[in-house]
Amino acid sequence: MMKKLSIVDTTLRDGEQCPGVVFFPEDKVKLARALDEIGVSEIEVGIFDRKTEGREYLSKIMHQKKHAKISLWSRLNPVDVMEACRQKPDIVHIAVPVSYVQIYSKLNKNKAWVEKQFMECIEIANNFHVQVTPGFEDSSRADIGFMIKLAVQAEKMGIKIIRLADTVGIFTPVRAGKLVKEIHSHSSIMIEAHEHNDFGMAVANSLEMANMGAGLIDCTILGIGERSGNCNMYDFIHACEVHFDTGIDKRSVLKIEELLSGMIKPDRRKFL
């Protein structure tokens, strides 16, 4: 029997960071409905901002979806997490900076600050009874010991899944798989793989992380995303056919690719 894998779609969040791609609220609702119909386990619909039209499209998606869980992305900020939780999604993804570049150079903070914010944000979400998936941001350049420490802390606080994000797209399959194996040697927490395609390795990295025990794989339709894009859903599902059961027929993904292509203006398709 093939191992079951869950597909997390982030077209509506990370995919929208592709140059030239902007989704109208009605586009997001249509795409979310289509993704739900083909069997995607989770749909990351964006970053909630109460100053935009986000509240309206999120409400529509939540009411129309039948199977998939709906998630919102949030910074490691208690106010942002609280606001996201108030929208009552199924899941809130909290981006947790774990590399020294992110912590010290970008944020001018330290690891103690990250740990404190981390625990406070999880506690807020738990109080709202909203599932949390901490996303270890820039995990491909991070200290493995620090990530293991956070994973163990998260598991003790009731977290079931952590996302390993190759934020700058520099993983190779061997390194990506080794990270999953190392974390699993210290914690039984489930791992979600989030790969970027800067060196054309997103599908290969995701496949090896699944081989090493990751149970959830992040994808986008057409592989769109910031810079060179994310793990292409069609390509990943095709590569999985003899190894894993994703529960998704790759032919159904082609129909959503057509839907997405119709939403992108012709002069902007050159960016894809």
TrEMBL record:
One of its GO terms (molecular function) is acyltransferase activity, acyl groups converted into alkyl on transfer. Residues 5-254 form the Pyruvate carboxyltransferase domain. It comes from the Bacteria. This is Homocitrate synthase NifV. The keyword tRNA processing does not apply. Keywords: Transferase. One of its GO terms (biological process) is carboxylic acid metabolic process. PANTHER family: HOMOCITRATE SYNTHASE, ISOPROPYLMALATE_HOMOCITRATE_CITRAMALATE SYNTHASE FAMILY PROTEIN. InterPro entries: AIPM/Hcit_synth_CS (IPR002034), Aldolase_TIM (IPR013785), PYR_CT (IPR000891). Belongs to the alpha-IPM synthase/homocitrate synthase family. Transmembrane segments: none annotated.
